[in-house]
Amino acid sequence: MSIKSLAALSLAAALCAWTVGGKAQDAPGASPTNVEISAEGKQVYETICQACHMADAKGGGSTGAAIPALADNAHLASKDFIVDILLKGRGGMPWFNDLLTPEQMAAGATYVRSHFNKYPDPVTEADVKHIAAGGKASPRDCVTC
């Protein structure tokens, strides 16, 4: 094996090790938060949301459609905002109340709010049920009020 091949192989191994090591935070540029992120929330995101919003949650979509970024999204500071969209859909995004349980919606919303953003307050199953029943979160959760 030539020195050039060895160097290329070493670089590839280093990049692979760096990539695997980076999985500890589980997102490009993400920093750990004090929110307990459930495996279910991550699974909901990776199984459903990621297809359109991308693995890094920066949107765009593989179809070229204008799919909003979820990462660094100030609208997600409000629990109402993300839960309302999950329940009712918006634009080209369908609603998920026939597909996901309130617990799964809460887990997915918490994952997006804390993993791709810095909103540490988890969305609960009770929050989803409250908003589904027509309620609104407290004024402290509303960024557009």
Q: Specify the biggest β-sheet.
A: none
CATH topology: Cytochrome Bc1 Complex, Chain D, domain 2
The rounded Rg comes to 18 Å
Structural class assignment = mainly alpha
Helical content band: 40-55%
> What is the domain total for the residues?
1
Sequence stretches where pLDDT stays below 50 over 5 or more residues: 1-35, 139-145
Assigned CATH architecture: Orthogonal Bundle
Question: Tally the helices: what do you get?
Answer: 5
**CATH domain class name:** Mainly Alpha
Tell me the β content.
under 5%
Annotated CATH homologous superfamily? Cytochrome c-like domain
Distance between the termini: 66 Å
Along the chain, the helix and strand elements come as HHHHH
Number of E-state strands: 0
Mean pLDDT: 75
Coarse shape: globular
Features:
single chain, 145 residues, mainly alpha, Cytochrome Bc1 Complex, Chain D, domain 2, disordered N terminus, disordered C terminus
How would you describe what is shown here?
The longest helix has 20 residues, at 3-22. Mean pLDDT is 75; it is low at 1-35 and 139-145. The protein is globular and about 30 Å long. It is built from five helices and no strands. Helix content is 46%, strand content 0%. The N and C termini lie far apart (66 Å). It is mainly α.
